[in-house]
Amino acid sequence: MNKKLVSVLTAAVCVCSVFGGALAASADEAVETAEGAETVEVIDKTITVWCPEELTAFTEEMIGNFQEANPDYADYTVTVEAVGESDAAYYMMTDVEGGADIFHFTQDQLASLVSAGALTPAGDTSNWVKEQNDAGSVYAATWADTIYAYPLTSDSGYFLYYDKSVISDPTTIEGILSDCETAGKDFYMEINSGWYQPAFFLGTGCDLVYETDDLGGITSAKVTYASPEGLKALKAMIALTESTAFRNGSSISDAPNCAAIVDGTWDSSAAKDLFGENCACTKLPTFSVDDEEYQMSGFGGFRLLGIKPQTDADKLAAIRAISQYLAGAEVQLERYLAAGWGPSNKAAQASEAVQADAALSALAQQLIYTVPQGQYPADYWTLATSLGDTVISGELTGAADTELMGVLQSFQDACIACAE
After folding, report:
1. 44: Cβ–Cβ under 8 A, 6 or more apart, which residues?
2. Which residues of the chain have pLDDT under 50?
3. Contact of 164 with 281, CB cutoff 8 Å
């Protein structure tokens, strides 16, 4: 027993001798408690959740509802903290142990988070993820054939808005351009953007992939633009710019004479304002090159929910239960109604509210053909802009295939050099 503690107890006995017996008993209990404290197992009943600031109150409310409905997990203290998706991924990669138990992130960070050991595979809940969510979001949550996260949204990407009083058939880019030319209207697509431009190249089957290390640093690249597939994509871009209806851009607010535009859900209100009762939207059109037809592809974006590795099986079970609830149909629909996040859950997508959202329905059609956006170096975006500007300027109009292949080879080499 600690000597200082003995001295204090002895002094107390001398001053309060009338309570000597009781005090002695208390002293014995104190000794037993002190000696046994080292053997008491401390059970961690705390869970930290990181989510974007605008959803902290919503997430707290949903977790409260979950714990009320599931008393087995009511003794866990769940703290929700405002940490944005990009910051969350960075913090988790640099300090897994100090990171949140549950965190929001975007699909372009998945590979780096897996490499950093910051994600626990979905394990027994993998089939649930596949059954509940659309194929694009499941693919976005998968690395090396293993599902590592719970999809939350399928709402980032681009599709076609159009004026149905002008466009008779929105399924082909040739038909859209013809209708626009006849009506003296414009078709907008931002082909000098690294975000929109891949709609052509990925559509013909080109690769544009960057590999990353544990901290998200670019380590290697697979780019196949200098290929027969890339040549077809470039020819399609050139043909687009030759139309008098073509305008380079992606903001419907800056397109007053527009009859069709490649844009995203963020501009749905502007599209309704411009086209009024004739506003319509659908997946991107096809394009034809050398008598072959290709579906426009492009990038898609998905939000995911991750779980960091746990050593306590009971805590992991609680975390998984909470994560499934937050990623389930009921909460995805509530999140859409509260914040406008487009669901990845198929049941939520089928709800009356989401089905009534024409923009989300169009995006859902397009996401079938898209590739989840990965991580790309800053120089890639500059190179894509330069390639698009060259096409828009007319420099490549009428150029021979050999010249076009030279342009593609230079672009490809520069993209690969970004990873070296």
Report:
1. 312, 315
2. 1-34
3. no
Token pair belonging to 102: 């549950």
Bridge partners of 294, per DSSP, are 287
pLDDT given at position 142? 94
Rounded to 10 deg, the angle between the 401-417 and 378-392 helix axes is 160
Task: Name the packing angle between helices 329-339 and 313-327 (round to 10°).
Answer: 50
Q: What is the pLDDT of residue 5?
A: 36
Residue type, 18: V
- The model's pLDDT over 186-197, given as tens digits with 9 standing for 90+, comes to 999 999 999 999
pTM value is 0.80
Q: What is the rounded CA–CA span in Å between residue 97 and residue 59? A: 23
